[in-house]
UniProtKB/TrEMBL annotation:
Protein name: Ketoacyl-ACP synthase III
Source species, domain of life: Bacteria
Lineage, broadest ranks: Bacteria, Pseudomonadati, Pseudomonadota, Alphaproteobacteria, Caulobacterales
Keyword DNA repair: no
Residue ranges occupied by any Beta-ketoacyl-[acyl-carrier-protein] synthase III C-terminal domain in the UniProt entry: 235-321
Length: 323
């Protein structure tokens, strides 16, 4: 049977760094060690003035093409997940198609999702491939949340970093699906728990007051309530068990939330991937950036990995994949 698989991932991070020492100097009530203990993050990568999500997306995609020795002409479809596009229109995906030199016969679209976006994107890529509409899909995630953070909001400034990842999803012959059917969830009633109120057409803005507002306790309650249920639904839909999964890669929201989830779900620490210490919460790119080192470890026995994205929307998605 023809099925979709994750072939490769490449990340791209901006040069700028925001360390805990720098944050502690601005927020004296939180020491560098306290920030690390609360968040699991030591530093975040920060885009420069004038450096956008599109620039980071281009860097990640070019790194992936070079890594895999692929000609841009071999890409049939480009999916770009971002909540910080360069323009209202045209879509950043169309501009990225030109920057990468992808063929004009390739499809290209943006989709606006945050923390669940990578898993949603995998499902879209899977559908394109397994319906016969594409053989190779380039899934790119890129965000520059640092440009939305109020300078004095220590709750969000300690968490978010900028970054991008490019994932190659391709068609292969296999006896069973390598990306199982995905479970989704949406609760728009919780939209204001993570929101940038100004800047759209509902509340226009010149840009200076486009600020991310986060209800931390509300997001925590949502996560601890909905992620376990999503996993139950995924296991029921796929007929798999937790023990069949070698690794668990969840959205790297922050260390405290991940530790609470791991303990609540009784996942052994050695099977639960945490990889955010040097990059922070990169929103749509946290899962692929954490997956990339696992893919680059070389050939070996296939591993089944559970992926769970959750956050802004409110939105969530869970998948079981073989890498």
């Amino acid at each position: 049977m023809l099925t979709a698989r994750i072939k490769a991932i490449a990340g791209h991070l901006p040069e700028g760094r925001l360390t805990n020492d720098a944050l502690a100097a601005r927020f004296p009530d939180w020491s560098a060690d306290k920030i690390l203990d609360k968040t699991g993050i030591a530093e975040r990568r920060i885009a420069a003035d004038g450096e956008t999500s599109l620039d980071l997306a281009e860097g990640a995609a070019k790194a992936l093409l070079a890594q895999e020795g692929l000609n841009p002409g071999e890409i049939d479809f480009l999916l770009l997940c971002t909540q910080t596009p360069d323009y209202v229109l045209p879509t950043s995906a169309c501009l990225l198609q030109a920057r990468l030199g992808l063929p004009t016969s390739a499809g290209a679209l943006d989709f606006n999702l945050g923390c669940s976006g990578f898993v949603y994107g995998l499902s879209l890529a899977k559908a394109l491939i397994e319906s016969g509409q594409a053989k190779r899909v380039l899934l790119v995630t890129a965000d520059t949340y640092s440009k939305l953070l109020a300078p004095d909001d220590q709750g969000v400034r300690t968490l978010f970093g900028d970054g991008a990842a490019a994932t190659l999803v391709e068609a292969v012959e296999a006896q069973a699906p390598l990306i199982d059917p995905v479970v989704f969830g949406t609760d728009g009633l919780g939209g204001e728990r993570l929101i940038v109120k100004r800047g759209g057409f509902r509340e226009p803005s010149a840009g200076a007051d486009m600020v991310l507002e986060m209800d931390g306790p509300g997001v925590m309650a949502f996560t601890l309530g909905h992620v376990p249920k999503a996993i139950e639904q995924l296991l029921a839909r796929t007929g798999r068990t937790m023990d069949e999964h070698d690794l668990f890669v969840f959205h790297q929201a922050n260390g405290f939330i991940l530790d609470r989830l791991r303990k609540k779900l009784a996942i052994p620490p050695e099977r639960f991937v945490i990889d955010m210490r040097e990059v922070g919460n990169t929103v749509s790119s946290t899962i692929p950036l954490a997956l990339a080192p696992l893919l680059s470890q070389g050939a070996g026995a296939p591993r089944r990995v559970m992926l769970v994205g959750f956050g802004v929307g409110l939105s969530w998605a869970a998948a079981s994949v073989v890498i």
